[in-house]
Each structure stands twice: as structure tokens, then as C-alpha cells.
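Here is one chain, start to finish.
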Amino acid sequence: MIEVPKTHNPEKFNSATSSLVPTTNETLGGKFKLVIGIFGILSAIGIVSLILKITTVGFDTKSGWGYYAAIVSLLLGVFGTAPMVAIAPTIAKADWHRPVSRIATMFTLAGISTSILAIPLIFALPPLVVGGIRRRSIWFDANIYTPHVFFGIAVIGLFLIGLALLWVTSIPDLSMMRDHSSGWKQRLGKSLSRGFIGTERQWISLRARIGMMGTFYFMFLIFVHIIYSICFSLELVAGWKDAIYPMYHAATGIQSGVATVIIGLFLFRKYWNLEDHIGIDQFWALSKLMFATTIFWFYFFICAFMIFWYGKSAINEMTIAILVNGPYMPVFIGTLLLSFIVPWWIIIWNPVRYSPWMLSIVATIVLIGSVLDRIRLYVISWQVYSDEMIHKRYIPLDEIPENMIAPSLFDIGIFIGFISLGILAILLASRFIPVVSIWERHQSILLTRHIKFHRTEVYAVGKPD
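Its structure:
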């Protein structure tokens, strides 16, 4: 068993346990059922919209799947990359992330939305051989349905690994639910905690499994972003060549994931009464991650854009016309403002970084910019695709569409419904798994102390290994 050092009061452990375990019972009070009902209805609307889109639009009308592909890409960033906020600081052995890690990891549950949406999109993706001719792709002589199979395996594998990561990181808390709850929660906690009692061998095994699951999740996440960005947008546009684009897709996905965690942290802190566990330090640290990913947005964009701008070839001019100054130029301007200029200008000020609600506003602005960015990249990619055009060396400027495609009611219903489905999965899980990791709070109590330093008092953090 773990021995608590004499320098720490055991009452702090009991206080953390007694304040966090009941959050699974008292979540939002009587309003919780209302919130669950609202998100349940919205999720049902999304599922109905998906069914109607498949039956009415069909898989052969490629231009009708642009907004759908943009939604899947957005969910890969919003829900898929949010757990990286827990994985990366854990590898770096940071202390600030401990109250944040469970909330970030719970977004793996929202991956169910991405997995469901990915399946119809696989059928809409054209094969590698179109009209008896193999189209240009990264798959060379592979089977004509290779990208379909690989993407399906990758996105479902990412979801399953995310579930495993959430379960592994929750085992100590599940054992506390076993010991401090009753009824179905106690029985489920006993089943999922796998006899965990906190021996040294169990803790060593737990840390190893957390590291292994975190590594696998990161590998699958980057692979999914790369294969999705290439197969579902870049390869659909004849002549579009951009080696930086897959990493731009992943980096901007991480930006939206950090924004999602900030908003989730703000809401859980406020409505779950977790001010004693989630402090300003967590928002301060997340603000620096937000600042870094915002700078990365511009860095990856300008690196690719300079090649097209100074190249001045017909292919480069076509690429700029499609992605920047073509029919979706208003969307690009909105993306530039909301994904880089506005958040960058706001977040450089220290008062914003110290304010949870102001930082949440910045995160909301970033998410709106992410929506516009995915529309800019995916809608026109599916709009310009045709079985004849895909075999051309590039698309002539006079053949690029002059008008934007507006989203259909089905697209709007899918967008709202499947985001709601992901949130619903997280809210339901909060009825059993504490949204702030109890065992990591205990670890923080063991490793941190306020000490005297010259004329002030500082927060000293020890390293566990």
C-alpha cells in the first residue's frame, strides 16, 4: 500500500475523495435530466438527418458530401485531439494538468460521433480506379478500395484506443467508486477496477499501461489526420500537391482540441462546483498551449502558401484560387481572422490568460474559425470533383466554380446532432466517472507544497520518478 508522508495531512485525501465522488450523484442537481433530454433529442435529430441524407442524396452525388466531410474533419479535431491535452503533459510529468486530464480524456467517448459519421463517408469516397483509369493518389498499385479500408480501421481503432485510455486512467477512481458508492455504481466499479487496491506493483503496471495507451492514441491520431486530409480532400482535386497540408490539418486539429478542453473545463468548473480543484493555474497553462497552437496555424499555412504564391505556375494559381481567393474567399478571410488574428491579439494579454471566462470566449472564437477552415478545405474539394476532371493535370481557372455551395438542412442537422451526441456520451459518463481524477488529485497533494522563498511564498512541485 502507498504510505502517505507525515508532511501531508491525511485529511486532505479524505476531503478530495469526499468532494469528488459525490459529483457523480449531484451533477447539475435537478437540471441534469433536462440537459440530458435536450442533447438526446438533438442527437436523434442528427441520426435522422444522416439517414435522410443517405437515402435522398446518395453516394454518387459527390458535391453533396462536402459539408459532411468538413463535419467529420471538425470532429476529428474537436473531439479526437482533445485527449492530447492530457497525454502530452503526462509524458512531461507536469503537475498543472492533473485536474484537467480526466476531462480531456473523457472526450474520447465523443469519438463515437466521428466513428458513426465516418462509415457513410467511406462509401461516398471514389475508388482509386475511376472510369477504368487509376487516379493520382498516394496508394500507387494498391487495391482500389485500400484507402476506404485503412481509414475505417484507423478511425474505429482510434475510438477503441481512446476508450482503453479512459478506462486505464480511471481504474484507481473506479476502485474508489467500489468502496464509496452503492448499488449499480458499486457493482460496476468492482467489475472495472479489476481488484485494484493500490499496491506498488499495481501502480507500476498502471503507469506503464497509461504510457502505452497514450502513445498508441497519439500514433493513431496523427495517422487518421494524415490519411483523412489526403484521401478526403487533397486527392479529390486534380493537381493539388501539398506536402505540408497533412501536418497543417493535424496542427489545426490540436488547436481546436485545446479550445474544446478550455470550454469544457470552464463549464465543468462552474456547474459541477469544482473551483476548489480546478484553479487559475490550469487556465493559465492552457492559455499558453492555445497561444502556441494559434501561432502554429499561421506557421503551417504560410509555409504552404509561399510555395504556391512564388511558384506562379498554372497548378499553383489553381491551388490559390481554390483555397484562398476563389469562391470561398469570404470563408478564408473569416478563418484567418478567427483562427489566428483575433485569438492571437486577445491572448497575448495576461489578464485574458488569468480569466477563465475570457479565455473561454477566445476558445469559442477559435472553434468558429475551425468550422470555417474545414468548410474552406473540404466543401470545394468535393465540389470540383468529377469522374472526368480527376484525371486532368490540373483544373483550369475558368472551370473552377464561381459560387459557394450552401449547407443543406441535412448537413445542419448532422452538424448539431452529432456534436450533441458526443456531449451526451460525456455527460452520461460523468454519472459514474468523476470528471476530476481523484487519484491524480491525491498525487498532486503528495507532490506539492507551499514553501517560503525569500520574501514570498512559492508553489514547489516534486517529480514522482
